[in-house]
Every structure is written in structure tokens, then in C-alpha cells.
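This week, look over our next protein:
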Amino acid sequence: MGAQDLLLDDVEGAEGIAAEVETHYRRDQDLKRYHALKWEESMRYIEGDHSSRGALSAVEVGGIPQPSHRTGHVPRPHTNYIYYVARLLMSQLISNLPKGTTRPKSNRDEDQVASRVANAVREVLWEETREDERYREAASWVVALGSCIKKDYLDYTEDARRGLMAPARPMETAEGVPLHEMDGSVMKEDPELPELVVNSAILSPFQFSFDPLASSFDDAEWLMETSVQRLSWIQQQFDPRDSNGKRLPGYTGKVDDVVEEQALSSTLLAWYRLKSTHRGSYGGPDTNIKDAAVVKEYYRRPSAEFPEGRCAVVANGITLYEGDSPYAPARMWHPYTFFSWFPYPGRVWPIGPVEQCVPVQRRINSIDTFWMLYRHTTLAPKWLMPKGSGIPRNQLTGRPGQVVEFNAGAGEPHMVAMPQIGSEIVMERDRAIQDLKEIAGISDPISGERAKGVPSYSAQAFLQENAQSAHGVTYAAWEKSIERSEAKRLRLVALAYDSDRPSFTEAVQAKLKNMASEVELKVFKGADLKDNVSVRVEPGSSIPKSRVLYKQQVMELLQTGILGPVFQDPSAKQQFFELFEIEGFAAVESEDVLKAEAENAMASQGEDISAMILQQDNHQLHIDLHGKRNKQIMRNTPDGKPTPEMNAIQAHIMKHQSALQEQMMQNPEAAAAAGAQGQMESGQMAMGPEGMMQPMGAAPSNGTPQPPQG
């Protein structure tokens, strides 16, 4: 079997599979040599090591040769514009990170509810697996090398399972009295570890190989991950047991036979060298690793012979798993999602921005080198010394006040005049910097510089949006990859979370409450998702929006008077103060807005807010804000019936109404001024005869019209 052919369809037995996988791992460095050299060179340039240059013929990334004794010292200055490019492009990708939303598979109520549960599950997983950090790492690889691979997988390791477990709870009696140990400490429950958790990881291109005949990641017939893992991690991850202690199907139970791997392939060595300041060359000797081995995780696309796909895991010649893909029940044959910068026709590995900027950075460095040589030559010029002048070779140092005696009869020394440098070289450098910006797609609006001659911030925002279109392909691919990854995570939860996980259920329920959802979960299981695992990321949602430009657009609209009526709403006024981070101007009204919002939040958590009324409250403002909250809840309630939260808020509104009427009776002038503000305007709801809510002024169930209650 050739190095490129790793279908393994005709290979049987653990030993045969291990031999083929190990052979491909070693030969993959030749297949990926060109890309690996480019990748390592890009990483060096970001770091600031501009003296290195890829030499494909020598299979190394070596330093630029030192000058000969005839040329003397040649300075190698560099201003690291590559770092500036990488930093800015990475910020563009993660500044507006989209999470997407789960779409119900039908309009049925059970699917609508399940989709809301799925959104809460994704929020919990996002926090548990620190997805914001994962996507920062993904953005750094995509900008630096053009691509990376995200792995959403089933993690059986104890460290991961214990890390995502809720803290132990105090034990109590039926009456709620805490139980104590003999030493007086509170007794705590010993929570049971889950069998597995859904986790994620980011892999660099150095750590991945696939079918070389594929033109895209989705077309590959097979994929293989190669990662360096500690032996303890290998033993935990690839020897999982069920609740009865029985080893799961497909696992060979040979984890104890894996010993540390003494060497790395050249491709993986390039990745390993990124962890240290010492570089060496791409084709140099392998680096020894301690207490670790290279795990080769192979996946084969489903076929007629293997309808569930095929998976093989090998570490240092030992097969740890062989059989159907463990992810087939989740309707995916592998756990990977490909992230890319800009596609290259006909191959999987895309083009990265740094790779394209390296030649321009070299041009800038060469111009700076010329400038330094000119400066050194001007300060220490060449001299023509007549023979017999009696001046030693190194006598003329240029030291201030230096006196040099010479034989006038032999002739006077002459300094060789240096030619003046024209403005062309300055223009060339400026042009090179502009070329670098254009290649990277970071024009002035994106980099934060205001375009010259643009009169308004609205026009500036238009230019910025137009400039972002240069990265339209990248943003679209980025959003689609996030969408696919989030969907995979939901599928894994639906597959693996088949038993009670109290801490996870509590976290999901808390998210549902924050979403103003009335879904109640006693015990969450993956089956509760009811196959509602389709995630959609709104196109264009990852494109960064400038907060400064947004502020200026608001100011421009304020000057036109369009937003005048809007700011009669206290909530809108408070949002304006918060947007501009203005303190000290909102005064009493701001305090009432914050108090009303806090009361609404407490009501959403089921807390009693009936007594939270002060004589100093702006009662009409509270009535408006609480009524607005009830409208929001009603809009999100599937059956349109009042909820306990709405009833609690309405009871609170009625107390504000009573207090407001009492104030008006004591101050008739204030009553006349406030008479124009009708209760219908605030969206209030009245209490029906059975404690249920109904619109103000509507006929109750007994058919007798009643006036608005006060």
C-alpha cells in the first residue's frame, strides 16, 4: 500500500492497521513538506524572526547566510509589519464572534420548546468548554497558517469529567438542617462522575493529514489526526468503561502496552518547536519527548463495506481502537470541523494572509538594510590615502578634535563623497507598506484610520462596511464552520447525555430562565432535544461593527431630531447614557429604571417583589417598565396565556397604581399634569376575577364591564 493510499479497506487485524498507520505517519512529512515549510516560515515572521527563509531544496528553514569577509557586516533590520497584520486580522475574526441559534425542525410546540432547550444547552457547553478561548486559538491559526481544525469529541478522561462536575453539596435533613461530621464540618454529598463529557480542542495543520486526492475537506475519503499526548491521558481516553465496568466495543484494552515515543516526524516536530524558543531546522534531528506518545486517530468515510464508517486509533505501534466510527450514531463519521482563510482551487490547504505578506515584508527589510548601510557609510566615510602620506590605515576614526599628521609631499587625503539618496526610495518603502495592507485586506477604515475627505461618520461606516467585503469569503467560511461545529456538539449531547446530570440540568434551567423561557426541566437528557440540532449562524453576523462609528451615527441622528420622540422613553434614555458611558446625568430617573429592571429580573427568578415599593419611586415610570416587560413575556409565550411571572409583575403594577393615585389625590396639580398619560399606553394588564390577567378595560369572564383597576 502506498503512502498516499490509507483507505485500509483491505487491511485486517490490529497489527496490520498499526503498521499501515505508522508508515503513513512517517511518510506524511514528505507529502506535506512544501506546506510545512511555508507554515513554519509564517510563524517565524509573526514572531519577528525575519532572518529565516524556507529552502525547499534543502528541506529546511535556515537563517540567511552570513556575509563574507569581503563585504563585512551587513545589518539586518526589520520592522515587524507582519505582526501588525496578524494582530489586526485576528481581532477582526473574534471581535464579533457569532453563536447562532437552534432552528426547530417543525412548527410543533414540542419542537419549539426543544429548540429553546437546545439553545440553553449550547450556552452551557460554551461556558464549560471555554469556547471563546477555543475560537481565539482557531483565529490565530487561521490568520497565521490559513487553516485549522476544531475537534468536538467525547472525552472519557477523568480530569475532564471532574473539571466539569458541580461542587459537592451540603447534606441536609428533611427539615433542611445541615448534617455535620464528627469534627464539626458540614457533611457533603459525593457526586458521581459522569461517564463522559463533550469537549473540544483546536488542531493546527501540522497535526493533520487526509486523502491527498481530495479537493476540499468535505471530499476527503479519510482523515487522520496526529497529536502528542501524555501516556496518562492515553490510558484514560482509550479504555472507557460503561456503568457496569465493561469495556466499550471497539477498544482493544492495550493502553498499558503503549510506551513513550522517542522521536517525532519532521512535520510534527515543526509544531513541537513552536513551544520553545530554540528552533533548529525543519529537516534536523527528531526531538525526544518524555512520558508521551503520538496518537494517530484515523477515520474512514462510510462505504458499502463500512456503512458506519471506520475508525482506528494507533499509538507507537499499538492499536487502541478498531471498528465502526464511534460518532456514527450521532450522524457524523468524524468529529472535525475545518476552518479556513481563503480557498485554493484544487487542494484542501487554503491560502493564508501571512504567507502572502512575507515577500513584501522582505522588500521592506531590504530597503531598511540599504538605509542603515548608507547611514553607517556616511558617518564613517571612505578615504583615499596617497601612498607615502605616513597615515596609518585605521588612523582616521572621525573622532571630534582628532589631529592627524601626514607627509604633505605625498599628497593630501581625500574623503570619497557619498551620493545623495533621492525621494524614490522613500516612496518605494511607503508603496511597499501600502502593498502589504492591500494584500492583507486591511485598508484604512478597517485598521481604524479615518479616510481623508470623508465628511460624516455615516459615510465612514459605509466605507468600513465596503472594506469588510474584501474578507467576505473568509467571514462566510468562518460563520459556516462555527455553525457546523455547534451542530456537532448538539448531536454529541443528544447521543451521550442519556442519564441524569444534576449540575448540567441546573445550568440549562438557569439559562432558560435568563432567556425568559417558561420551559421547566426536572431532569435533562439528550433525548429532550428531539433531534432539534440544526444550528444557523446569521450570514454577516461575524463582521465587526465599530462601536465608535455607531455612537457617532446616533449623534448625527440626534442632531436631525429623528430620535427626539424615542428618548421620551426612560429606558431608551438610560441605554443612551450607558452607550456613551455617561455618569451623573441620569440622576433620579436612572435609579428608577435600574430598580424596575432589577425587580423584573427577580420576578423572572420566581422571587417575591410585591413589597418592593418605595414612597420615593417614580410610580408612572415603574408602571411603564413593568408593563413593557409583561408585553415581552406575552410575545414569547407559545400559548399566549399569562404566566406566573406575568401575574406577579401585574400585582406589583397594581400596587404602583394605588400609590400613584394616592399621590395624585394629595397633589391635584401633579394629577392634572399626569392626566394625559393613559394606562393603556403602558401596556398594562388587569387582574381578572380568578386572579388571571386580561387587558385593561376588557370584559371579565362574568360579562360585566369593569373600569381599569387602580
